[in-house]
Amino acid sequence: MSEIAKLVLADQTYEFPIIVGTENERAIDIQQLRGQTGHITLDNGFMNTGSCESSITFINGEKGILRYRGIPLDQLADQSSFIETSYLLLNGNLPSPSQLAKITDDITSHCSIPDDMKEMIRHFPKNAHPMAILGAMTNALAGFYPEVTPSSSEDVINEATARLIAVTSTIAAHSFKHSIGEDFINPSSNLEYSENFLNMMFASSTGGYSPDPDMVKALEMLLIMHVDHEQNCSASSVRLVGSSQPSLYAAITAGIAALWGPLHGGANQAVMEMLSQIYESGKEPEAFIDMAKDKSNNFRLSGFGHRVYKNYDPRARIIKGICMDILKKESIKDPLLDIAVKLEAQVLNDDYFIKRKLYPNVDFYSGLLYKAMGVPTEMFTVLFAIGRMPGWIAQWKEMINTPGIKIGRPRQVYTGNTETNYTPMQER
Ligand code: ACO
């Protein structure tokens, strides 16, 4: 017999079904709550609210587990590629050799953007944030290519999927070239995804660049690490905006906007700025830890804490390892790495952080790795977006294929004036 939850309101008892996920996650299904009781729930920040059932990504925040379609992240980071993991996310299973060849080909053949879009990038101020350019250009895709909505054919949706994964790296690289006043480097169909991105970033029109294979491998792993993270702020934004059924490009643009913030994907930029600030201040990291604990200001240690992880973020653990390896291999001495390691050790031993279960998150070490690749700080969040693109699309596809899906429209508890008469201007 299926389980039920009982709610007693005044003298009446109401019953609601319990939904149990494949990993024994439990939820009270309150779809009938308002209809039956006249009450709604209030849940600041959706701390306790599930917005959907999903079979894409599983996280156990207490144990520090992350799996895509059931496969542990570390296995994918070690053995898979970004494109293969994207296929897994989008289709639910690992591809056969021919399926992998096809998706790779689809992505490679959609890498270029129209000349008019390149011209649009050139019209941005040189110091425009690359996330502003990425958001604007992603929305602009809706104007350049056929409409992609939940009622579009599978072929149209697949083509848009390949295009989005492909052009995100092209737009990112072009926005970087624009910021430094260099010519854009066109995508190359002979290069693998990450190699192609590094080439578009660092080759010049006079040629002479060959991406370091260690950096290419590190970038692939970083992209895999960012591919999806269930119902986070940006994925939820994609779903919420997508639920009103605009173009897929518009829904993805919402995800890009949400990712930009320093509490979400923008934290990787904020971490580097914080580490630089500690370095330039000449102070010990402890001074900044004290500041983060002091409730009289809003300062937080960027790269620490997570809504779901109450344990070490598995992505942070892997990225820290790659970061250490790459810096050692390339004989890069970065004083910010020393500060990061010291800061982390002190935080992990500090009662304030222990009590609140605040551990390093994905953004704490990723910036140091991007920096080692020669990527400037302002581009960090864009790299996150490149990695997250397949996840956003997978979330959108899952949503539009859910029977009976409704427009996302939360309610509120109104706390404003009760009915008040209009006061004419001369009486105010
Ligand atoms: N530094 C200092 N204190 C912190 C930090 C931090 N980084 N993070 C949380 N806390 C404290 C809060 O002040 C709060 O303390 P209190 O209980 O005394 O009021 C407690 O820990 C719980 O924090 P909340 O803000 O309630 O946790 P929430 O789940 O809402 O926020 C978030 C999670 C936004 C990630 C938060 O930990 C944070 O701001 N971290 C820094 C920004 C960051 O690194 N973001 C990237 C997250 S990963 C990603 O999105 C890709």
Main features:
single chain, 428 residues, mainly alpha, 3-stranded antiparallel β-sheet, 51% helix, 7% strand, globular, binds acetyl coenzyme *A
Tell me what you see in this structure:
This protein has 428 residues and is mainly alpha-helical. Helix content is 51%, strand content 7%. The protein has 18 helices and 6 strands. A 3-stranded antiparallel sheet has the order 1-2-3. A 3-stranded antiparallel sheet has the order 4-5-6. Strand 2 (12-20) and strand 3 (26-28) form a beta hairpin. Helix 7 (154-179) packs parallel to helix 8 and helix 7 runs antiparallel to helix 18. It is globular, with a radius of gyration of 23 Å. 40% of the residues are buried. The model has no long low-confidence stretch (mean pLDDT 96). The chain binds acetyl coenzyme *A (ACO).
Query: What would the principal axes of the Cα set say about the shape?
Result: globular
| Element order: H for helix, E for strand | EEEHEEEHHHHHHHHHHHHHHHHH
Largest sheet: 3 strands, antiparallel
Helix content: 40-55%
The chain-level mean pLDDT equals 96
Bound molecules: acetyl coenzyme *A
What is the number of beta strands? 6
Offer a concise description of the structure:
With 428 residues, the protein is mainly alpha-helical.
Lay out the secondary structure.
Blueprint: E1 4-9, E2 12-20, E3 26-28, H1 33-37, E4 57-60, E5 65-68, E6 71-72, H2 73-79, H3 82-91, H4 97-108, H5 115-122, H6 130-144, H7 154-179, H8 193-202, H9 213-226, H10 233-242, H11 248-260, H12 267-281, H13 285-293, H14 314-329, H15 335-348, H16 351-355, H17 363-372, H18 380-400
Antiparallel strand pairs: 1-2, 2-3, 4-5, 5-6
The protein binds acetyl coenzyme *A (ACO).
Acetyl coenzyme *A (ACO) binds next to loops.
